[in-house]
Amino acid sequence: MVxxxxxxxxxxxxxxxxxxxxxxxxxxRSPLLPGRELDDVGDAAARLAGFGALGGGTVVQWxxxxxxxxxxxxxxxxxxxxxxxxxxxxxxxxxxxxxxLLDSVRDRLAELxxxxxxxxxxxxxxxxxxxxxxxGFHGLDEHAEFTMRAAAEAHHRTGAPIAVHLELGTGVLDVxxxxxxxxxxxxxxxxxGHLNRSPDFAVHRLAAEAGANLAFDGPSRANHATDWRMPxxxxxLADAGxxxxxxxxxxxxxxxxxxxxxxxxxxxxxxxLALGKGVLEQILVANPARVYAW
Length: 294
Known about the structure:
By secondary structure, the protein is of the alpha/beta class. Helix content is 41%, strand content 16%.
């Protein structure tokens, strides 16, 4: 069986994904970001087209359930831009939802994830290609544990990878202890996001040694203080033999985020200087092809 990514237009063989923005958002809405939503179809089309014009092949949207994914728009955006798009199921931190929404899914969370991965999201027929969950600041609260247990069950039933929002890049080892230790998820199926927000090279090394995938994403105003450490962090991991664990993303969360074209226009040349073209191609092409195909 040929491994394939589950895109919004159907399955795509892993070796045809091209250059991958491994963590981004075309659409996202949250009560924590009032008035700063990504909800404009024209803007999403422009960002996706800009990414494609710079050689981008695939964008993985980490926007989970209940946060304005606009799934019905994604197939047309993908088709018109020529860029593959992967959509997510999953659940973010509790603060991003109303109590009513959380109550409505609490007793069926694993089934919700499995259904969106195997049958489609709502009545769109679009299947999700990953499960997005979230940790807390330096730990896991009750909501995070509950959500990760549902994600692990859905992973075991489908094989889909689990992408984890790490709050300010923290809680890495707690996440791995729960998902990979107690719940038996293979580390190679776990993607740890936002590691650039906490440039703790020792923790990065421990996560890589455990076999997890490490996603470095941004830049943004909120995390600008640590953005400049990303090349050093990536070089340290590559020099230690963990280049095959690394992923890159633009993580466009608000309209003022530089976003996915910036990833290729400005971040890619900077990282070529730090890592060399061969390692950077591995990070942008080979690694996400392995991680997102199931």
